[in-house]
Amino acid sequence: MFTVRYMWLLVLCFYGYSLCQADPAQIFLSHIDNATNNLWTQLETDSDHVFLRSDLESFIHSYDTDNDTHVTRNEFYAHFLKDDPDLGSIAYGMFLEFDTNQDGLIDTKDLDSVYARIDINGDNRVEEAEFKQYFKSLLTILYLMHIQGIPDPGPIVI
């Protein structure tokens, strides 16, 4: 008698519980969207809704702690990991993405290639949609590699 009489309550509770459970993919995409929006807000500083190559250069040079016109792997890691040291594989992937000639430094030679990747339509202006598309793709790949433990750069020495 208990099961038939209160079955509706059990079903209602189970249904309500299942509605409260967020879809992990949606949570992941929401995190990526938030990270991309924060990155846009941080890097597009003049509020013209265009990310110029000079904005990219300013961003990268903010990592150049010794002001020698290039960013070493250690400078990049130190800056990138200061707020969340558990993101070593993401820092590793970002450095590899920005060090396009793989010489162990991010400098002005690398920035032309990076900017061309971000400028999806090739008009030498990166609109907000292009910026977000590029960084959502990059962050998604890097985050998936991070949660899988790939690549494991080993201990990151700063």
Describe the model.
- This protein is mainly α and 158 residues long.
- The protein has one domain (24-148): Recoverin, domain 1 (Orthogonal Bundle), CATH 1.10.238.
- It contains 8 helices and 4 strands; from the N terminus they run H-H-H-E-H-E-H-H-E-H-E-H.
- The protein has helices spanning 2-5, 7-20, 24-43, 53-61, 73-81, 88-98, 108-118, 128-148; strands at 50-51, 71-72, 105-106, 126-127.
- The protein has a two-stranded antiparallel ribbon with strand order 1-4. A two-stranded antiparallel ribbon has the order 2-3.
- Helix 5 packs across helix 6.
- Residues 1-19 have low confidence and may be disordered.
Relevant terms:
8 helices; Recoverin, domain 1; 5% strand; globular; disordered N terminus; 158 residues; mainly alpha; 63% helix; two-stranded antiparallel ribbon; 4 strands; single chain; two-stranded antiparallel sheet
SSE blueprint:
Elements: H1 2-5, H2 7-20, H3 24-43, E1 50-51, H4 53-61, E2 71-72, H5 73-81, H6 88-98, E3 105-106, H7 108-118, E4 126-127, H8 128-148
Antiparallel strand pairs: 1-4, 2-3
Q: Which strands sit side by side, in order, in the main sheet?
A: 1-4
- The value of Rg in angstroms is 21 Å
Shape: globular
What is the distance, rounded to the nearest whole angstrom, between the alpha carbons of the first and last residues?
Answer: 67 Å
> How helix-rich are the residues, as a percent range?
55-70%
In the CATH hierarchy, what is the architecture at level 2? Answer: Orthogonal Bundle
SSE topology string: HHHEHEHHEHEH
The total domain count is: 1
Portion in beta strands: 5-15%
What's the total helix number?
8
Count of individual beta strands: 4
**Which runs of at least 5 residues are low in confidence (pLDDT < 50)?**
1-19
CATH fold-level label: Recoverin, domain 1
Question: What characterizes the major β-sheet?
Answer: 2 strands, antiparallel
CATH class: Mainly Alpha
Mean pLDDT: 79
